[in-house]
Structures are given as C-alpha cells and as structure tokens.
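not sure who needs this but someone in the group chat was asking about H-type small acid-soluble spore protein from Serpentinicella alkaliphila so here u go. i didnt clean anything up, its just raw.
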Amino acid sequence: MDIKRAKAIIESTREIEVQYNGQSVWLEGINEINSKVEIKNHKSSKVKRYVDVDELIEMK
C-alpha cells in the first residue's frame, strides 16, 4: 500500500479491510514524513502502533 491509498481508506465512509501481519486492522492516522501509519487491531482496539505503510495489505 502507499500513503495516498492509506489516506483514502482513512477518509472513506466505507469499511475497507486492511491487514497487517495477517490480522485485520483499522487505520487511525498517518505520519507522511516517515511513511508510517498508526493502526489498531480489530480485536484489541486499545493497542495502537505505527507501522510502515508498505507492510499493509488492502483486502479486496
């Protein structure tokens, strides 16, 4: 995934499935300077972390 697509997913009114390391995650925010995206796991919404945008996979 790239930063442009991550932004579009965050701004979308639809629910778009994204996975990180085989787990479904929500995209919460973007740090464009270092191409990181803040994510939280669907099952454990309290845990947030920043990951490289290219590690995210949009499920179609």
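also The first helix runs from residue 3 to 11. if thats useful
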